[in-house]
């Protein structure tokens, strides 16, 4: 695992954007696996700036997203489709027809089958990852069993708590989500995880322990050949990570 310790959130966002820029310049028709959440927002902003001001070209890039809430229409301002349009796709020259976010409404089993079909025929060059406070990846919640393929997850109470800040009330937070499985995530050629904020336990288990722990899905990064972790210095210091 390559670990990049960044002094600030903004510096981390730039370092993470550097990794994506290098890939997009070397392979203009690459496929990016994308993530939502506050962790990658700064990186998306930086990529949008580089697209606008420095000609970083996304016109041939394809993307597939990690997950989507069950029950939210794509037009709902907390759906992950809306998030991606609002935070990235509307600000870069990507062809939206080449972007895929699983559907969270309608026939969920059919949506999951479609999601798996897309994943089966897609080689993700780089998968962006945040991490939940409980160590979840996408919406792969901790548990004795993790799943290889895209599936429906029941969200942990701690995940509902963490995501309540985005909704009018806790009751409005969806209880289910569709997510890429751990296998689809691990098959990406490169993993790029951005950790900051209240992820102390997950960061400690990932960087300071030698266990691959299904109770902390983030630890599976240790099994990947090309995983990059961008962590804020304040969090690295808190867990005693020295590099
Ligand atoms: C949600 C998403 C995850 C994301 C996590 C952390 O639960 N499904 O993919 O990593 O939030 O979000 P944040 O970066 O806002 O802390």
How do the strands and helices of this protein lay out in sequence?
Blueprint: E1 2-6, H1 9-26, E2 31-34, H2 41-54, E3 62-65, E4 67-69, H3 80-87, E5 99-100, H4 108-120, E6 126-129, E7 151-154, H5 157-163, E8 176-179, H6 182-187, E9 190-195, H7 200-208, E10 227-232, H8 233-239
Parallel strand pairs: 1-10, 2-3, 2-6, 3-5, 6-9, 9-10
Antiparallel strand pairs: 4-8, 7-8
Residues 35-39, 66-67, 130-132, 138-139, 159, 163, 197 line the site of 2-amino-2-deoxy-6-O-phosphono-alpha-D-glucopyranose.
Give the tags.
243 residues; alpha/beta; Rossmann fold; three-stranded antiparallel sheet; 8 helices; binds 2-amino-2-deoxy-6-O-phosphono-alpha-D-glucopyranose
In short:
The chain contains 8 helices and 10 strands.
Task: Tell me about this structure.
This protein has 243 residues and is an alpha/beta fold. The protein has a single domain, classed as 3-Layer(aba) Sandwich (Rossmann fold). The chain has helices at residues 9-26, 41-54, 80-87, 108-120, 157-163, 182-187, 200-208, 233-239, and strands at residues 2-6, 31-34, 62-65, 67-69, 99-100, 126-129, 151-154, 176-179, 190-195, 227-232. α2 (41-54) links the parallel β2 (31-34) and β3 (62-65). α1 (9-26) packs across α2 and α7 packs across α8. The radius of gyration is 17 Å and the shape is globular. The model has no long low-confidence stretch (mean pLDDT 97). Bound molecules: 2-amino-2-deoxy-6-O-phosphono-alpha-D-glucopyranose. 2-amino-2-deoxy-6-O-phosphono-alpha-D-glucopyranose binds at residues 35-39, 66-67, 130-132, 138-139, 159, 163, 197.
